[in-house]
Amino acid sequence: MPKTPRRSPRQPAAAATPELQLGHEVEWPTTPEAARLDRVPNPQRDTDYLARFTAPEFTSLCPVTGQPDFAHLVIDYAPGAWLLESKSLKLYLAAFRNHGAFHEDCTVAIGKRIAQEIKPKWLRIGGYWYPRGGIPIDVFWQTGRIPKGLWVPEQGVQPYRGRG
């Protein structure tokens, strides 16, 4: 992995905002704690809607064996005043690649950190983990009740079925 994420050639340097990581070369964070999550103002803050991030190739390390663990993460949230900036989310999630933690800890910690940073009206995270020791583990966490009238689609990740 390159030491710094590359900027898209279609994104002009003038579009960079000094306080955001977006539009700037930044170092890959080495730990989730060192990673910064950026937020931007929500121009539709008076409207209830759902935003979804999907990370189908999330990785972390088993805290006991050091072997890699793999998950498909789905993060749904109803924005309040802030939106989660996607480049910072990518960098934050990548910081787990060398982080040892159990599936439950990774999933819940990610949800709590995002909720703390952007203070959404509602957030849920589904961590669909591939089998470890022959047993898949799915982990779900949310901040509270779904706002009335908000359309929340299914996360669309099938349960692990092996070769069946």
Coarse morphology: globular
What composes the largest sheet?
4 strands, antiparallel
Write the CATH homologous superfamily of the domain at 45-142.
Answer: GTP cyclohydrolase I, C-terminal domain/NADPH-dependent 7-cyano-7-deazaguanine reductase, N-terminal domain
Report the mean per-residue pLDDT as an integer: 89
Structural class: alpha+beta
| Oligomerization state | single chain
Q: Which CATH top level class of the domain at 45-142 fits?
A: Alpha Beta
Look up the CATH topology of the domain at 45-142: GTP Cyclohydrolase I, domain 2
Order of helices and strands: EEEEHHEE
**Contiguous runs where pLDDT drops below 50 for at least 5 residues:** 6-16
Task: Give the spatial strand order of the biggest sheet.
Answer: 2-3-5-6
> What is the gyration radius calculated from CA atoms?
17 Å
**How helical, in percent, are the residues?**
10-25%
Just name the CATH architecture of the domain at 45-142: 2-Layer Sandwich
Count of β-strands: 6
Instruction: Give the helix tally.
Output: 2
**How large a portion of the residues is in β-strands, by DSSP E?**
25-35%
Organism: Rhodopseudomonas faecalis
Active site: 62 (thioimide intermediate), 69 (proton donor)
Subcellular location: Cytoplasm
Family: Belongs to the GTP cyclohydrolase I family. QueF type 1 subfamily.
